[in-house]
Fold this protein.
Amino acid sequence: MLNVDDVLVAREKLKGIVHTTPLDYSHTFSHLSQNEVYLKLENLQKTGSFKVRGSYNKLTSLTKEDLSKGVVAASAGNHAQGVAYSSQMLGIPCTIVMPKGAPLSKVLATKQYGAEVILEGSVFDEALAYALEYCERINGTFIHAFDDDEVIVGQGTVGLEILEQLPEVDAIICPVGGGGLIAGVAMTVKQMNPNVSVYGVQTLACPSMKQSLLQNKPVMVEATPTMADGIAVKKPGKRNFDIIKQYVDDIVCVDEMEIARSMLMLLERNKLLVEGSGASPVAALLYEKLHIKGKKITAVLSGGNVDVHFISKIIERGLVEAGRYAHFSLTLKDKPGELEKVLRYLTELNANIQNVNLQHIGRHIYPGFAQLEISLETKNNDHIEQIHKVLKNKGYTIRLGSSPS
C-alpha cells in the first residue's frame, strides 16, 4: 500500500523540477460560500498543471533500459505536457497520443516540449486504447496518466504542500477524472491528518468516478461534450478507485454552465486563468454542492491550459448572463432621422452601443420599413429591462437576438 513516506521521497525528487505553488486566500469566494477559501494555484505550475509532478516522479523511477526505449502516453492535454516536459528534462524520446478534439494550445505546447504528437480518437479513452497498442508495437514504455503508483504519489505532493501551507485546513476539494490527483492528495492528507475532509468534483458530462463508487467498482460511463476536458475520463483507474473508496469523503458533480461561470469569476475577480476542470472545485463551492459553511477550505485549481478562442466564448457568455451585454432587433420606418432617434434614446439610457446593423431588404422586412439589429454594453439585467421598457413605450417592438431576414 502507498503511504506518506512514498510522497516524501517523491517530493525530494521533484525539488528544482516543479514549483511549490501558492495557496492564495480568496475574499470573493470566501464571502460567496460563507467559508474561508484558499486556492491552491496549480494553474501556475510548470507546464500549466499539476500533472508534471506525477509524470516526472514516474519517469525517474524507471530503469535506464525502460527510458532508452522511449516513452508513450495518452492525454487530453495536461498529462501530455507533463510527460513531454519530463522527457525533455531527462533527454529521452517521447510520443503522446491525444484525442482529435484536444485544445490546440495543449497540442502545440506538447510539441514545443519536444514530443511527437499523434491525434487519435474522439475522447481520452479512445486515445488511450490507441496509445497502448502503439506502445506495444514499438516496444516502448507506457506512462499512464493516473492508474500508476508513482504517478499517484507524485500528485500526492500537492496534498503535502497544502498541509504545510495551511495546517488548520478543514477540507480539500479536488477535480476528479481518472482519479490520480485526488487519490494522491487524499491518501497523503488522511494519513497525516484523518480529520481533514477530502471531496472530489466531476462534471455531469462524465461522472465516471461518482458512478463507480455507486456500483462499488470502476465502470465505464457514457460521456457528453464538456469544457472540462481534463476530467472527461469515461472509466477511472483501479488503483485510484481503491484509494478514493478508502479515503475520499464524497464526490459531487457540477454542470457546464456552473463551470463556465466559475471560470469567468476566477478570471474577473481573482485574475486567474483556470481551465474547466480546474474551476470545478470552485463551482462546487459556489453552487453549494457540498453544503459546507464556516470552514477553512482549499480548492485545488488543477490547471490553467485554456485555448485562447475558448476564453473569449466564456467571457461573452458570462457577460450575457450578467446582463452586461444585450443584443436585440426592432423595426423602424425607412425614412431619415429614425435611426438617429433610436440611438438618442439609447444614449440617454446610458447604454454603450457596440454594433449597429440596419437592413432594408429581407423576407420579414416590409416595404417602407427597415430592421435594426443592435448590440449594447449594459450595466446589468435591470438596465436591459429598463431599455426594453422605454423602447416599447416609444412604440417599438423588441425581438431578442437576431431576427430572420
